[in-house]
Design goal:
The complex is a heterodimer of chains A (78) and B (80). Chain A is mostly helical and 78 residues long. Chain A has helices at 2-21, 25-45, 49-74. Chain A starts with a helix and ends with a helix. Chain B is flat, with a radius of gyration of 14 Å. Chain B has 80 residues and is an all-alpha fold. In chain B, helix 1 (2-22) packs antiparallel against helix 2 and helix 2 (26-51) packs antiparallel against helix 3 (55-78). Chain B has helices at residues 2-22, 26-51, 55-78. Classes of the chains: A mainly alpha (78), B mainly alpha (80).
Chain lengths: 78, 80
């Protein structure tokens, strides 16, 4: 089980670097959605299903949808 | 046995993340992110089978629903 946790932490590190250092807002948003969904699996492994459920609903669902609508309405690139 | 399956699925998700980094267009990145989301859904169901707790299935159901809604919103606003 430690190997799975190490791979998940590597995935979180890669998505955080890509979300920080990319030039386009849409790519950063997609990487941020992947980061939050990786964090859900980490909460499941740490035996906290209520925190994982809240993280799924708020961070991976509503925030991504609202950010997509906001980027589309404000025109978007950079 | 279940740990080995989860490790293999995570390695394939790391290989798919290369397409998220170097996809030429936005649609490649959206398709690759959706594929990684389906892999994470499979990992959630396998972890519920590993820990023998049925409440983890609910997280997987909500994540599947919100993944579908999310990709639908992306296709609606970036498809034109």
């Amino acid at each position: 089980m430690e190997m799975i946790v190490y791979l998940l932490l590597l995935f979180i590190l890669l998505t955080a670097f890509f979300a920080s250092f990319t030039k386009d807002l849409v790519n950063s948003l997609i990487a941020l959605s992947l980061l939050s969904s990786t964090l859900v699996i980490l909460f499941i492994i740490l035996q906290a299903p209520d925190v994982a459920l809240t993280e799924v609903v708020v961070a991976s669902g509503i925030t991504t949808g609202f950010f997509i609508i906001t980027i589309d309405k404000t025109g978007g690139k950079r | 046995m279940i740990e080995i399956i989860i490790i293999v699925i995570l390695l394939s998700a790391l290989l798919t993340f290369y397409r998220v980094i170097k996809g030429p267009t936005v649609f490649d990145r959206i398709a690759a992110a959706d594929s990684i989301g389906i892999m994470f859904l499979l990992i959630l169901v396998l972890l519920s089978l590993y820990f023998q707790r049925e409440i983890f299935i609910d997280v997987a159901i909500v994540y599947a629903l919100l993944l579908f809604v999310d990709v639908l919103i992306m296709a609606k606003f970036f498809g034109h």
